[in-house]
Design a protein that fits this description.
15 helices, 0% strand, globular, disordered N terminus
Length: 292
Amino acid sequence: MTLRIGRIAPRVGGIALTLALAACASTPSRIPAALVQAVEAKAADGRFDSAWEAARTYERFNDPRAVGWYERAARATPWTFHNPQAEEALGRIWTDGQLLHGDGPHVVQGAALRPSPRRAERWYRAAAEHGNPMAMLMLARFHRERGQAASALRWDLRATIYNHMSSESSRLPQAIAPQDDALHPLVLDIQKRARRGDADAQVDLGTLYETGMGGLPRDGNQALRWYRQAGDQGNVYGQYFSGLLLGRGRAGVTRDLDAAAGWFARAEAQQFYLAGESYWRERIKPPFWTFD
């Protein structure tokens, strides 16, 4: 069964989280009480940096209270490009059900967290929807390891567009190559869902046209058509990729910085930090890669 990824709000219920962390009671914290007091007193200011420092401190001591502080960091205001770092960290923690062991003097080995694929996907998706490049790659890996080929393909394609990966350096062309002179089943499914109005599938189809993968011709105008349709439905990747393609002016698309800026502004309004002007102007600078 193909997992259909929807827009997922980055929230973890207090009751569910308490139950999930209950197993940690058997692993006593060795973090000094004075350090706990100092870190939490500083973090009371509500700033991202303070919450992040508290989360990292707890994680160095393998203390599950790190989870709650990463959540606070993810929700901290004013929102900045740092918030998705906390979201990505939560995806990592829930994927494996464990904390990263730091080099502190009182590290307790083997935190008794339990993996939660649902929470992991939720937080990775939140980070990716806010522009975190690592989350794109981690989502592809996450779904691939669970045999969810369509979802893995989606994030592999998005990472390919973002990272300027060419056909030669990507495993994707062979993975979705036509079979017996017919399009790969995953590509056929993307086409079907895109035509029915599925915004995520429209972005997928746009990436296939932009890269010329999956047996489809490389056609920037077709790519832009599908990106725009997704973007008009509020899909942040449809908006961002429309901006990139217009800003770069590749694959037969006429370069139009004003139109690109409009799409980037729409993506930035959804807290997609890569769509900020300082970021997108760097991403559209030549030299360009090609997917030929």
